[in-house]
Amino acid sequence: MLDLDNELKVAEEFWDFLGGKGAYNELLDCFENAGIELRPEIDEYFAKFNK
User: Fold this and answer.
1) I want to staple 24 with a disulfide (CB 3.0 to 4.6 A). Which of 12, 20, 28, 35 is the partner?
2) How many other CB atoms are found less than 10 A from the CB of residue 12?
3) pLDDT of the residue at 39
4) Per-residue pLDDT for the chain (51 aa), expressed as one digit of tens each?
C-alpha cells in the first residue's frame, strides 16, 4: 500500500517536488511556447492525414 501523502506525487506536486516551487508552471509554459512556435510544422505534418 502507498502512503498517498508521502509516496505518491502527480502533476504539479510531482514536478514542483523535482524542480522546486513553480517548476510545473514553467514546464507548461515551455510546452506551450514550443507548440506555438512549431504550429505550422505540426499542422503541415497532420494535414497529410486529412486527405
Assistant:
1) 12
2) 15
3) 97
4) 788 888 889 999 999 999 999 999 999 999 999 999 999 999 999 999 987
Cell numbers linked to 42? 505540426
Q: Do 24 and 12 meet the contact criterion of CB atoms below 8 Å apart?
A: yes
Residue ranges of the alpha helices (H) in 1-51? 4-7, 12-19, 23-47
Q: In angstroms, how far is the first alpha carbon of the chain from the final one?
A: 50
Q: At 43, which amino acid appears?
A: D
Q: Go through the chain and tell me how many residues it has.
A: 51
The residue assigned the cell 497532420 is 46
The torsion region of residue 23 among left (phi > 0), alpha (psi -120 to 50) and beta comes to alpha
